[in-house]
Amino acid sequence: MTRPPAARPLTFLALALAVTPLAAQGRPAAPPPGFDAFVERVLRAFEVPGLTVAIVKDGQVVLARGYGIRRQGDPARVDADTRFGIASNSKAFTALALGLLVEEGKLEWDAPVIRYLPEFQLWDPWVTREITVRDLLVHRSGFSLGAGDLLWWPPSSYDRPEVMRRLRHIKPATSFRSAYAYDNVLYLVAGQLIERVSGRTWEEFVTDRLLRPVGMAGATVLHSAAGDTAGNVAGTHARVEGRVVPVKAFISDVTNPAGGINAGAADMARWMIALLDSGRVGEARLWSQRTTRELWDMVVPIRPGNPPPELAPARASFLGYALGFFVRDWRGRKLVTHTGGLPGYISRVALIPDLKLGVAVLQNSEAPGHDVIAWTVLDHYLGATHDWLGAYTTLARRGDSLAAAARTEAAAERDSTSRPSLPLERYAGTYRDAWYGDVVIAREGTGLGIRFAPSPDLVGDLVHWQYDTFLVRWRDRTLRADAYISFSLDEAGVPARAVMKPASDEVDFSFNFQDLDLRRVAP
């Protein structure tokens, strides 16, 4: 396990001197009227146990405050220092860490990755030669959405070098640089690159070069820190089978570079102030204005979609991905933003650089309250109004209805009178995917069980669906990731291959079962 280096008190003292005089510089612009009561309405509307909000404007902290409780069944309140997993909002830290190494002349944005990591390989040798440091961050590698995520999600036995090694076996879904498809695994490679070039782990580098100088004294760089139930850490909650309940926190540190940072509102306020002032903290400049431009300049354009009528003001005229950030317009202003999601956590960071305005919302459930609050804050400072709470409440109800209808339709299309082609024991065996590894199907009692060998949480039961297709019901129901598995028989009537896909659109995209090509291993 990696370990962040020891704290340097002088760094924190320097930051404290830089931050505390803000109140003396004039009263910060106020948050929306009745903001506290509004946030409480959001908590009730979406059954969110707790959240925390940071608002900054013109280099000052307008608000850094917690609302609600840290975890169900515990009266401890969320405060400005309560840590939440910010998930993919960590990607900006990885991008900026690379930017610091570029400034030092140790990296080039457009140099091939193999110049620094010669062992790195992808499916196509030409892409292996051509993919650059910049390409690692912008989701245009040719991978499909969430490709390779099962290597680490749920937690697996693979370490960071092994995940990187297995990427060579993932077949591309599109040609290189031709399409946008969000991934996490190449940020893991970026973490390996930082370690190789700097001589320090991603965790050490980000802690020492970013968190401490910025003044994020309470933040951590480890997914596993979310499991600290004794500390000032928000618990994780989600709606499971109709009820909001505690769920197991994600605590694997393999993909910290893609989503491992935990922070509170006070720390996120400092982070946003530093970003909006191009790395200036007090009298020090931690990174250059040029690096900020690199982070916020669009690299991959994305065709904006048409939101539902309830979200009409959120329609984008332009949209794209930069380095660790999405960029788009919001009511005529450039918006730099990202979301983050992990089991039981969701976050939104939104910055309008022209106004030196930033808002971060961190939440200990997966409901859409984070966006209701963020968009309401942005509109307040832009002099606009919209009922975002009403809009998202309507959409949530509609989404529940559509999901129920989809389940009903799937059940109606099922041929419940069909039977498997073979006795159940004939489907048992080890099935291997080139990039993921082994999946073991075995007779258990009167049915079949399934175990994903590298992923201890992926243990389930095969329930016959129709013909040679079974529904995989995971024994840990908080995974919310049931899937179909379909077997193909060879000319001798022996199951030779199996393919999978999520059983509904509600399954998180990181359960990329559809990318598995499972071939039976000869006994």
CATH homologous superfamily placement of the largest domain: DD-peptidase/beta-lactamase superfamily
Ranges where pLDDT stays below 50 over 5 or more residues in a row are 1-26
Q: Assign the CATH topology of the largest domain.
A: Beta-lactamase
Radius of gyration: 24 Å
Please state the overall shape, judged from the principal axes of the Cα atoms. Answer: globular
The CATH class of the largest domain is Alpha Beta
CATH architecture term of the largest domain: 3-Layer(aba) Sandwich
Secondary-structure content class: alpha+beta
Q: What count of domains describes the coordinates?
A: 2
Number of strands: 23
Average pLDDT level? 94
Q: Given the structure, what is the number of helices?
A: 12
Q: Give the percentage of residues in beta strands.
A: 15-25%
Helix content: 25-40%
